[in-house]
Specification:
Length: 254
């Protein structure tokens, strides 16, 4: 486990609503592009069981819905609604992440196969818009892409939180993820197409980056954007202090 080095902006929204902007690859006033540089192509693991429940000999198979599945070689048991790590076809790739929608057992020629129906989460770089500077290291996009896979593809369990719940965590594990955008795989679009932005750089919040709050206007800023040194930031973290932005200092005057 590791301590999170950030301040949550969730509580701040209760006192002051941040600015909103529409996202694009360039201008902050344009909509998200539906057709731009294609993201990394998702090559899901090969299906070992046909979705129509019919084997190569066209013999009809009987599906049985079950409540759980034990991951071979571990004590982990997964159930419907759990989020899991799926082995990527290329070992160098990060595991895929999906939520189990259904677990079925299907008789095969020599044994019973377990098949899981999945709803996929996409890594930002797999979407048409690609990974942006504000994307957190553990950020995913919840998609409308469903399919069925052999349960042997499951590597382990993980957790996927909403953006707000993730920001409230005091500690995160390497298998803790979050999402704030939904991705329509067929149309290659993201929703919502506008998000809250902060700081003078007007960027959406990245929960991996530390921010400080102005005690005058309650806005949040990246230390580098308001020219705070690492020593000043360390002191503020230690004493949970705030600061006054230069913008507010100038507005107040001498």
């Amino acid at each position: 486990m590791k301590k999170r080095e950030l301040r949550s902006l969730v509580a701040a929204r209760e006192t002051k609503s941040p600015m909103k902007t529409r996202l694009s690859s360039g201008s902050p006033t344009s909509v998200l592009p539906s057709q731009q540089s294609a993201g990394r192509r998702r090559n899901t693991p090969k299906k070992l069981i046909p979705e129509n429940g019919v084997d190569s000999g066209a013999k009809k198979l009987t599906k049985t819905t079950v409540d759980s599945y034990k991951i071979p070689g571990s004590r982990n048991v997964v159930k419907v609604g759990d989020c899991v790590l799926i082995r990527a076809p290329q070992r160098v790739e990060s595991p895929y992440v999906a939520r189990i929608e259904k677990i079925e057992q299907i008789p095969a020629s020599d044994k019973v196969k377990t098949v899981v129906k999945l709803r996929w989460f996409y890594h930002p770089e797999e979407t048409v818009c690609g990974r942006r500077p504000f994307h957190g290291e553990q950020e995913l996009c919840k998609s409308d892409h469903f399919d069925s896979q052999d349960a042997d593809c499951i590597q382990g369990k993980c957790k996927v939180y909403t953006f707000e719940d993730y920001c409230m965590l005091k500690e995160v594990d390497k298998h803790d993820y979050f999402w704030r955008f939904e991705y329509q795989a067929a149309s290659q679009t993201l929703s919502p197409d506008s998000v809250d932005v902060y700081c003078i750089c007007e960027m959406p919040y990245n929960p991996d980056h530390f921010m400080v709050q102005c005690e005058m206007c309650s806005d949040w800023f990246h230390p580098s954007c308001v020219k705070l040194s690492q020593e000043q930031v360390a002191t503020m973290e230690a004493y949970e202090a705030s600061m006054t932005s230069q913008r507010c200092v100038k507005a107040i005057g001498p």
